[in-house]
Amino acid sequence: MRSVEITAALTGPIDREHRARLYWERLIELSLDCFICERAGRTTILKYGAERAICSGDTDHGQHYSAARISSFDHTHTNDRIVLRSIVDFWWAPFDDAKRDLQAVAPTKIPWVRLHLGYSCPHKEEAGKASIQTNITRPYELICAPCETLIAVNEESPSIRLLP
Which pLDDT score is estimated for 161? Predict the structure, then answer.
């Protein structure tokens, strides 16, 4: 079993009226090798509280359960930052990815994560959703869809650290 720590921060300017209504959703998408379908770099969907994740699979296998879970999900709000820290545990075993002619090796780095946010617009009383991920241009501005207000800024890519 391996574990990764994922951290991310939204920073100023954080719109005061939206701050209390902006939250990290307990949903993470992470690029992991899947020893069940024997494919490298699969998008794995994790929900906090679920005992297992869902591997996106491919055209041959389709979606299926995967041996991964969110074991910790903590967030903090301050005046100028909204921070997420999460731990994901996943099981890994060696395999050959025949489609890509790759041999899966023990992970030393996880390349990609997408983190989801939810909010409620204080001006229009409508809900909205947003996400940030490692492979977008920074700084990334989160805009409230109903009122088009700048809610917050994501200045740094989420951090993914393999734990010993």
Answer: 96
Give yes or no for a contact between 17 and 153, defined as CB atoms under 8 angstroms apart.
no
Which residue shows structure tokens 């005061």?
16
Of 64, 73, 66, 90, the closest CA to residue 27 belongs to 73
Give CA–CA dist 12/24, Å, rounded.
16
- Residue 138 in 3-state DSSP? coil
Asked if residues 99 and 23 have their Cβ atoms less than 8 Å apart, the reply is no
Residue 8's pLDDT is: 97
* Paired sense of beta strands 113-120 and 102-103, if any: unpaired
Contact between residue 74 and residue 88 where contact means Cβ atoms under 8 Å apart: no
Per-residue model confidence as pLDDT tens digits over 7-66:
999 987 777 888 888 999 999 999 999 988 888 889 999 999 999 999 998 777 789 999
Residue 48 per-residue DSSP state = T
Using alpha carbons, select from 145, 135, 83, 87 the residue that is nearest to residue 113.
135
| φ, ψ for residue 139, nearest 5 deg | -70, 150
Reduced to 3 states, what is the DSSP secondary structure of residue 75? strand
Q: Which residues contact 52 (CB under 8 A, 6 or more apart)?
A: 65, 66, 67, 68, 69
Contacts of 111 (CB under 8 A, 6+ apart): 31, 41, 134, 160
